[in-house]
Amino acid sequence: MSVQKPSIPKGTRDFSPEIMAKRNYIFDTIKDVFKLYGFQSIETPAMENLSTLLGKYGEEGDKLLFKVLNSGDFLSEINTNDWQERNLAKLSTQICEKGLRYDLTVPFARYVVQHRNEIQFPFKRYQIQPVWRADRPQKGRYREFYQCDVDVIGSNSLLNEVELVQIIGNVFARLGLNTVTKINNRKILSGIAEIIGQKDKIIDITVAIDKLDKIGLEAVNNELKEKGLPQNAIEQLQPIINLKGSNYEKLNQLQEVLQPSEIGMKGIDEVRTIFEYLENFELQTEVELDLTLARGLNYYTGAIFEVKAKDYAIGSICGGGRYDDLTGIFGLKDVSGVGISFGADRIFDVMTALEKFPLSAQATTQILLVNFGKKEELYLLPLLKKLRESGISAEIYPESDKMKKQLTYADKKSIPYVAIAGENEINEQKISLKNMQTGEQKLLTFEELINEL
Question: Structure pTM?
Answer without folding.
Answer: 0.82
